[in-house]
Amino acid sequence: MSQSPLQLKNILFLDIETVSLTENFSELPERLKDHWRRKASKLKNEGELEPEDLYFERAAIYAEFGKVICIGVGGFYEQDTKFRAKTLVNTDEKLLLLEFKNLLEEHTAKGNLILCAHNGREFDFPYLCRRMLINGIKLPAVLDITGKKPWEVMHIDTLEFWKFGDYKNYTSLDLLASVFDIPGSKSLMDGSEVNPNYYHQKNLSKIAEYCREDVVVLAQLYLKMNGRDILEEGSIYRV
Questions:
Q1: Closest Cα to residue 209, out of 93, 85, 34?
Q2: Confidence of residue 33 (pLDDT cuts 50, 70, 90)
Q3: Sign of dihedral through CA atoms 20, 218, 74, 205?
């Protein structure tokens, strides 16, 4: 997984936060309601919730029933001695995705840009692609993997690296942060609180802060996985 300093500068670390497409199940278009009921019938449901209640708890993780509200991004600079992280936020998903696409296409790495996320291959990357297509946005080259050979896909997934070929278990970013003694973001909130904070508390700023901190943790984890020391707090800039 080792990267040269030049390649490290070309990596854009990212994390996304998603919510259910609507606050209430009743607001969904009728066709989507029927599809959700079928989806819900196949989901693990220990609380035996009705599909309408399960929607608020689980819909956000599926691109067909959820939407992106925040994208955290970050990158190294100044000979990899400093890291800058920021969030893109917008209640208008299409505008948010267009802003993110513009960021990708204007990145200084150009055709050498590499995207890194935790569980990115299973969640962040496909979710972004699906929501872009739903919003009528042409995929940027770095996300469009159609017809590409595996070694041509410029994506890094820290979860995939940690599995070492073992596909039986999921290991969270927070758990790996604990294992590697990296300060985490869970003091702010956790993923299950994103939907309530967005729809009930209307606290998009808290979600953005949580997302941005996950990007910092991700970058620090990447350094650890490459046998490097994590950055001191004074070398991390949040904008």
A1: 85
A2: very high
A3: positive
Query: Which domains does the chain show, CATH number per domain?
Result: 5-21+65-238 (3.30.420.10)
DSSP code per residue over 15-76:
EEEEEESSSSGGGS-HHHHHHHHHHHTTS--TT---HHHHHHHHGGGSTTTEEEEEEEEEEE
Single-letter amino acid, residue 32: L
Going by their DSSP bridges, the two strands 66-77 and 11-20 should be labelled as antiparallel
Alpha-carbon distance of 163 to 85, in angstroms, equals 26
Question: pLDDT (tens digit, 9 = 90+) per residue, 187-236?
Answer: 678 888 999 999 999 999 999 999 999 999 999 999 999 999 999 999 99
| Position 222, amino acid | Y
Q: From start to end of the chain, where are the E strands? A: 11-20, 66-77, 82-89, 114-117, 155-157, 236-238
Mean pLDDT of 155-164: 94
